[in-house]
Design brief:
19 helices, five-stranded mixed beta barrel, elongated, 14% strand, 14 strands
Length: 606
């Protein structure tokens, strides 16, 4: 039995270069068409190129919650902030964690940038609390907003609204129909109203012994008999009297950190202007929480032309809101009002005239477009699980980013030119294949980046541009590896066609190992870093994968076709594959063939 001859290769070893080239051509056409169909013809630019604001938020530890700052809460906060910002129509915003307790919010320059800045760090812990008493800071009472079922007719605001003409508990600037009350009678009526409201809302009564002791002390120290005062009511009244909402330090602590079941004092502005005076409230336990609001948005009331906030509650919130509004509708002003408390601050205190059922309601009164949309946006997306403070705010101008991009592109062009010159001098004709391969890789990279901007929100920033520039060297290195393997085969005495095919397996292994190491480094860098460095890692990883695609589906097939041309197969001096310049002599290649083919035959016959 004759042994197989050495040196013979399967007929299909050279493959079908036309099929591979067709695949990559179809991919390029499809990506380009998708880019135009999606109307995304340019990559999405990051904040450093488009301009905008970068905000760093730091999570704060809260009393009684030592382990609140954890990965779950941070990721939840990122999701809520991202939905808030994008809900305002701010396109291309980026929200991501940095380290254990920081969140980076990048807001590109846009029409709603200021609104987004105001909301990113707002905790938005929302409660609907019954009003027990309030005191206006203004000289005259302000109109009280109203709450009613969504879709109900809205009348024009009246100057003689009952809410504004009715004396409020604890307010010595009541309606004109009521005579001014003395301080003692005002305090007594206020205390009675608060006590009744506390009882109605189910607030636990104070310790009877403490109340009796307090009464005994009052009798011993007060000559004239006075009505007994509930210690809980007295404590709230004392806090209310001492609260000065015109002072920022007192506003910062009033109502903060309270539990839903607490009775609190809080500050707020009934007017929405920047210089509006501050008022103060006594508020009962929360009847409804903000998490029970399903959706909310600021819209224009078609009947009045005024901005309002429409709300839709979930099942639990709908039942609770109907019950609370039904109870408040039977009370006198101001106890027929409920306060919407956001992060301890009263943002609205509408009055209720009837129970609101059906799970839909609207808040009206004193809103402009921004305040209505802000409130609706925060109600829709819920409260942050953590409190945050602004650690730093950086403004990036598009001009600065443009200059840096221009410098980066110039550097990339210089590097590319040096690579082309080196290939031209050293590889001559093969340099054409290398340059065309680089162009194919650039087209694929550009179209994919443009599509990823709309698909997954990928933004091209300066580090990403650097990653693309570094990828030029990685791609060129793959060509050099393959070309050198072909030259090695020619030095051993083989002609170009078999040299191209024999060199490919050896070069393929080297290219795959090299690209795997580069991709692994990019993946690790992407995982362990945050912010703009991830852009560099992502681009580096993407271009490394594309390098494999281009080498396998374009460079190798085209090289197979070039080996069939006379210019390259004859070893033209400008082909880059001249046997004489490579140190191989044609007679050596011809003399080795008979020896190689006859040796196995002689051994077999013996």
């Amino acid at each position: 039995m004759a042994a197989p001859k050495k040196g013979r290769r399967p007929t299909g070893a050279q493959g079908r270069p036309g099929r591979a080239l067709a695949i990559i051509l179809i991919a390029m056409v499809a990506l380009t068409a998708g880019m135009f169909i999606s109307n995304q013809t340019t990559p999405r630019l990051g904040i450093d190129l488009a301009g905008g604001t970068s905000i760093t938020l730091k999570a704060k530890n809260e009393p009684g919650k030592p382990n609140a700052i954890n990965e779950t809460n941070m990721n939840t906060a990122v999701g809520i902030i991202e939905r808030r910002v994008n809900g305002l129509g701010v396109s291309e915003a980026e929200v991501q964690t940095q380290g254990r307790d920081h969140i980076i919010v990048n807001i590109p320059k846009g029409t709603n940038e200021k609104q987004a800045r105001a909301q990113v760090g707002t905790t938005a812990q929302l409660y609907f609390r019954p009003v027990l008493a309030y005191q206006d800071a203004a000289a005259a009472p302000e109109p009280t907003p109203s709450a009613k079922p969504s879709g109900a007719p809205s009348g024009a605001p009246s100057p003689s609204a009952s809410a504004s003409g009715t004396p409020k508990a604890g307010d010595n600037k009541g309606g004109k129909s009521s005579p001014p009350a003395s301080p003692s009678s005002s305090a007594t009526s206020q205390g009675r109203a608060i006590g009744e409201a506390l009882k109605a809302t189910g607030t636990p009564s104070p310790n009877p012994s403490a109340s009796q002791s307090k009464k005994a002390d009052d009798k011993a120290t007060t000559p004239a008999p006075t009505p007994s005062v509930d210690p809980a009511v007295a404590d709230i009244q004392a806090k209310f009297a001492a609260l000065d909402c015109s002072k920022e330090d007192q506003r910062a602590t009033a109502g903060k950190g309270a539990k839903p079941g607490d009775t609190i004092v809080a500050c707020g502005q009934r007017d929405k202007g920047e210089n509006a005076p501050w008022s103060k409230w006594i508020l009962g336990p929360a009847g409804v929480e903000g998490k029970d609001v399903k959706t909310a948005k600021g819209v224009i009331d078609p009947q009045t032309g005024m901005w309002i906030v429409t709300m839709e509650f979930n099942g639990k919130g709908s039942d609770a809101f109907a019950k609370v509004t039904g109870q408040l509708a039977t009370q006198q002003s101001p106890q027929n009002q409920f306060a919407i408390v956001l992060d301890g601050e009263v943002i609205s205190d509408p009055s209720v005239s009837s129970a609101i059922t059906g799970g839909n309601a609207q808040i009206s009164g004193g809103f402009n477009q921004q305040s209505a949309q802000d409130l609706g946006n925060m109600l829709s997306y819920g409260a942050l699980p953590l409190s945050f403070q602004e650690d730093s705010v950086t403004t990036v101008t598009a001009a600065l980013g443009g200059e840096q991009l221009k410098a980066g592109l110039i550097s990339g062009a210089i590097g590319l030119a040096l690579v082309v010159i080196y290939l031209l001098v050293y590889y001559r004709g093969l340099s054409i294949l290398a340059v065309v391969s680089l162009m194919v890789s650039a087209i694929l990279t550009y179209t994919i980046m443009a599509l990823l901007g709309k698909g997954i929100g990928f933004a091209l920033n300066l580090p990403a541009v650097c990653g693309a520039i570094v990828a030029i060297g990685i791609t060129a290195d793959s060509f050099i590896v393959y070309f050198e393997r072909i030259r090695d085969e020619i030095r051993e005495g083989r002609t170009l066609k078999p040299a191209v095919e024999r060199a490919w397996p050896r070069a393929r292994r080297t290219i795959l190992v090299s690209d795997f190491v580069s991709f692994l480094a990019a993946a690790v860098l992407f995982i362990v870093t945050v912010g703009k460095v991830q852009g560099f890692a992502f681009t580096l990883g993407l271009t490394t994968l594309l390098d494999v695609v281009v080498v396998f589906l374009f460079t190798k097939p085209v090289m197979t076709l070039l080996a069939r041309t006379k210019f390259f197969s004859s070893g033209h001096p400008w082909s880059g594959l001249d046997p004489k310049r490579l140190g191989a002599k044609p007679p050596l290649r011809r003399s080795r063939r008979p020896a190689a083919s006859s040796a196995p035959v002689d051994v077999k016959e013996a």
